[in-house]
Structures are given as structure tokens and as C-alpha cells.
Amino acid sequence: MPGDVSATPDRPCVKRALGDVAGLEQMAANVYEVAPGEQIPLAYHYHDDQEEVFYVLSGTLHVETPDETFEVGADEVFVVEPDSPQRAYNPDAATEPARAFVVGAPSVDDVHPYDPDG
């Protein structure tokens, strides 16, 4: 159960690294609990090779892209392809936390910051 996995320290939201506990090597699997005003730990960014899938368990997760900001509600999925900048967050005005199960594959450290003004 995700609640049985300790939260990863020093994050701007609660991250439970399920993939680490399960010993996954080819994909990352995390549950994030994002309070109003918080974002999922990485700032606006993109990956060279990693694909990501956000499955929202509760609340509404906002995903900002260069084209628009998407509101992803409970039981909805948002998919991010490689080289696609995105930032997932729960806005300040939200009335409840957002909780999401996020899978990324392959499990590589290929993240790059993205500057929408640059």
C-alpha cells in the first residue's frame, strides 16, 4: 500500500517512491500528494527519453505545457511524451490536495529544466 511507504524527504510535496521499494530498474513509480500551492517535485522540465503517465487518484492536478494548462481530474490520465515540457502542480486556489500515481519509463536521469520565456 502506498501509505505504508515512507515519504521521500526534502520535497515540495509528499512523494512515496514505490518503484524504489519494489526494486524497479526500468521504470519509476511514485505516488504524489500535492497540497494547494505545491507542485510535483520537478520544476517545469522535459525528458530526453522518458515517457510519463499521471493517473489522478483524487483532486485535480494541473499540468502546464507550452500550449496550454490541462486540468486532470480524479480517474483521468495525462500522458507526457519525451521532449515535451510540462509542470504538474496544484494551484494556490485549490480547495483540496491532489493525489496522483505517476509512472515514468525508462527510469533514467535525463531531466532538463524548461524556461517558457527562454
Automatic annotation (TrEMBL):
Keywords: Metal-binding. GO terms for molecular function: metal ion binding. Pfam families: Cupin_2. Residues 31-103 form the Cupin type-2 domain. SUPFAM superfamilies: RmlC-like cupins. InterPro entries: Cupin_2, GPI/OXD, RmlC-like_jellyroll, RmlC_Cupin_sf. PANTHER family: OXALATE-BINDING PROTEIN, SLL1358 PROTEIN. This is Cupin type-2 domain-containing protein.
